[in-house]
Amino acid sequence: MALGKDYVTQECSIARALEIVGERWTLLVVRDAIYGVRRYNDFLVHLGIPRAVLSSRLRTLTEEGILEKRRYQETPPRDEYVVTERGAALWPVLRALGHWGREHIDGHRLRVFRHADCGGEVEPYGTCAACGTLVPVADVVMVPGPELDSAPADPVSRALLRPKRLLEPLETGPAHLAD
Amino acid sequence: MALGKDYVTQECSIARALEIVGERWTLLVVRDAIYGVRRYNDFLVHLGIPRAVLSSRLRTLTEEGILEKRRYQETPPRDEYVVTERGAALWPVLRALGHWGREHIDGHRLRVFRHADCGGEVEPYGTCAACGTLVPVADVVMVPGPELDSAPADPVSRALLRPKRLLEPLETGPAHLAD
DNA sequence: CCGGTCGGTTCAGTGATCGAACCTACGGTG
DNA sequence: CACCGTAGGTTCGATCACTGAACCGACCGG
């Protein structure tokens, strides 16, 4: 639970939402999942989150239907966490948060989101600046901005340096190739 | 700090934003401030938040320029916390969160947001269903939905039962009249 | 057999939150 | 003046969550 029994008394959809995604780290896990991160270790190195907390968040998000745990190979058994439709529906929240952080706190353009169909930039409210359509999350391409560190330490950040369509799985490649 | 030193390592506007508004209770305080709550005691009874935590959150939000502490009477000295432009800019985040909570978790239409100019409903992405304009937060009127409790216990919730334009101060009235 | 990877769990220490109690400054009443 | 009530806090012990490190089991390759 994000805020315990106290939130339950609140008659408010915002409080309901925060009960589920308001805990520390949770929205960053969802952000990474939408960026295409799917594997336990990739979340771990990219977020720098304690293992116990990551396990707890992945379990909660799976129980809430925001992620789906999926066996992608049998020997050795390996699971991946794939964002569901319910999870992808959090994209507008994350986009709004990122826009607020960029405009009011940070000031840097670390990443740019573009409409895959026409290349137009996705505006703060989710519409394409070029063609005006409301861009669904699956049609968003994330492009690294000019102020993003060009040589990050972890392989996940390196993989995210390439332009990438949201929701599609991230290819981090074998560890021995990343060095 | 919302998530401590760990977030600092993240090159991401979302992480930047969550450092500030990602702590427990913080977004609910901002929500109430946008709803027009301004006084310490009103936050207290409406949120059911521990006093020490409320004091801490109000201080942090003031330091970050999201709220502004303002002396509104001298004897006895009384301060109010008014949401700033930076704070009001979080409205799209809260609207998106509320929409997600309603669509994917709760299912109830507890409150409806309408465009003050034309009465059209504000859609998930912030545009007016009737006239199509992107509705600024100051032009949003909050109307209680049919499923909202019609006789809440605390005076702030009762004051919020009346249709109310966002950002305008909430009139809770004297305590002895609320009974 | 040995080392490495992946996906965890367990555990002690620390920090945050909670709820209650307390405090200050003032105003009103008798 | 004594006393009560309100507004806006602070302080404090108990509890809960997070942190970081260690550990573990299943598997693979050499």
Automatic annotation (TrEMBL), chains A, B:
Domain HTH hxlR-type stretches: 12-109
Name listed for the protein in its UniProt record: Helix-turn-helix transcriptional regulator
Residues in coiled coil: none
Family annotation (PANTHER family): TRANSCRIPTIONAL REGULATOR, MARR FAMILY, TRANSCRIPTIONAL REGULATORY PROTEIN
UniProt keyword annotation of DNA-binding present: yes
ATP-binding is among the record's keywords: no
Pfam families: HxlR (PF01638)
Transmembrane annotation, as ranges: none
InterPro entries linked: HTH_HxlR (IPR002577), WH-like_DNA-bd_sf (IPR036388), WH_DNA-bd_sf (IPR036390)
Protein origin, superkingdom: Bacteria
